[in-house]
Specification:
Elements lengths: L1 H56 L2 E2 H16 L5 H11 L2 E2 L2
Helix pairs in contact: 1-2, 1-3, 2-3
């Protein structure tokens, strides 16, 4: 009888621990997804900014292109595509110049 009660208590404690750990895992997974989405938005914004500046000056500097490539690599690594891919393609086609 006592062994049965002890086994039930251990089972209940294990279930609570697994539930707690599962909820923590879901929380941190959700937090990571939100962080990735925020970072992706910031990288895309920075890429658009470089594009806007280059469009105004009618050429892209080598420094701007280097930064755009690094930003796009990180953006793409986070799963960003679409607009960012179109922007980097246009930047790569722009005439190169010096400031």
């Amino acid at each position: 009888m006592i062994d049965s009660i002890m086994a039930d208590c251990i089972y209940a404690i294990l279930c609570m621990a697994v539930g707690y750990l599962w909820n923590k895992l879901k929380y941190y997974d959700n937090k990571q997804k939100n962080t990735d989405e925020g970072l992706k938005a910031l990288l895309k914004d920075r890429l658009i900014s470089i594009y806007t500046d280059a469009k105004k000056q009618k050429y892209i500097t080598f420094d701007q292109m280097d930064r755009a490539d690094m930003i796009y690599k990180a953006y793409h690594g986070l799963g960003g595509n679409g607009t960012g891919t179109a922007i980097i393609a246009e930047l790569r086609e722009m005439p190169k110049g010096y400031d």
